[in-house]
Amino acid sequence: MRTRPGVPEAPLKPKSERTYALLAPAIPSEAPEGGGAGTAGIQIPSFSVGVCAADRMDDPVGFIRSILKESAHSPAVMRELVVVASGVQGPTLSRLEQASELDERVKLLVESKRRGKAEAINRILSSVSGEYIVFVNADATPEPGAMASLLRLVSSSPTNGAVSALPVPETSGGVASLLTRFMWSAHNECSIYLNHLGVANHSSDELVVFRASATTPLPAGLVNDGAYMAGVAKRRGYKVKVCPSAKVRVRTPSRLVEVILQRRRILFGHAQVWRKVGAPPMTIESMLVLSPLASIHVLARSLSKDSRFLLVLPLAGVGEAFAAALSFVDTLRSTTAHEVWRRFA
Asked: Which of 109, 206, 225, 302 could bridge across to 140 with cysteines, CB 3.0–4.6 Å?
């Protein structure tokens, strides 16, 4: 169902909660008023899915169909699946319109031009009604069962505010691919390490679920939405977690220069989050400064996964330093640089 500004939306008609109770075991919920309805005294939680789509989607229909299939096997009721299509035209937009007809809970919001992911996220936040909100990148592919695992974990305690999946890079070979594999390996090892310590304040936005009460509208010009939303949730007293059993496949840059430029944007975004939230996102690069011994431990675990990572370790250090220098210059020049960025993967 496609929605344009100013046009009233038809009421959503989600599947019955009895159907979902048969598909998966219900889990306890402290659902607020307007949340999941009870069945035999057990609250069935509800969730919504948000997707930010740009012009690079290989198979929009297949993507939406896969999300609907995963939602049917999740331990909660999906209220709506909101897709914000920013600057999408031609065949891709037509396929998204086709995808929106697959289920009456699918809502397609069209933006004539890209205004930044923060604005798209805000449109999703204002359009959903679930107790939990699952965000999926349009160029990512959740592995089977990942969404259900995230929902089970986030709803297992009222103090859990955010739970993200572990990204698994899809690479094609070459130095850039090996480098990105190493970087994602270090990222994941860091996430697991901080998760065990209970001090994480950063989430990967490739696939993440937030408790709705832990979310807040994003400021204009924000670059790293997952890091900001997790930082806000942590500041509000919620726990930020990672679910190692939940995996999501992600595309990666194929050239070294693209890796550096992507890291430049991400590091700029981390600095932006630091200023707005008051604490730096806890990632492997920030830990190198704030907790060198812990970061060395994490890197050692990552290097032990694949001996070939040693070959790109010096390159990773030089590339990260160069990207940091570029992001520092960007910070001096503008507070909204990279608001609308070029996609490399």
From this structure: 206
**What are the angstrom distances between the C-alpha of 99 and each of 78, 92, 181, 201, 250?**
17, 10, 32, 35, 21
Identify the three-state secondary structure at position 330: helix
Other beta carbons less than 10 A from residue 171's beta carbon: 17
Q: For residue 178, which of 169, 166, 188 has the smallest C-alpha distance? A: 169
Calpha distance 143→165 (Å, rounded): 10
The tokens for 154 are 């986030």
Is residue 263 a contact partner of residue 320, using CB atoms and an 8 Å limit? yes
CA distance 230 to 201: 6
Cβ atoms of 239 and 229 closer than 8 Å: no
Token pair 């809502």 is found at 107
Which residue, among 261, 253, 271, 247, has the nearest Cα to 319 in the 3D structure? 261
307 three-state secondary structure:
coil
CA atoms within 13 Å, Cβ hemisphere of 313: 13
Which residue type does 57 have? M
**CA 261, 265, 266: angle at the middle one, nearest 5?**
115
Cα distance between residue 292 and residue 303, in whole Å: 16
Contact between residue 303 and residue 202 where contact means Cβ atoms under 8 Å apart: no
Please list, in sequence order, all residues whose beta carbon lies within 8 angstroms of the beta carbon of residue 320, skipping any fewer than 6 positions away. 263, 285
Write down the pTM of the prediction: 0.84
Beta strand 42-43 with 38-39 is antiparallel
Quick: pLDDT tens for 122-177.
Answer: 999 999 999 999 999 988 999 999 999 999 999 999 999 999 999 999 877 889 99
Rg of the chain over Cα atoms, rounded to whole angstroms, equals: 20
Helix (H, G, I), strand (E, B) or coil at 222: coil
Identity of the residue numbered 2: R
Interacting residues of 38 by C-beta distance below 8 A, sequence separation 6+: 44
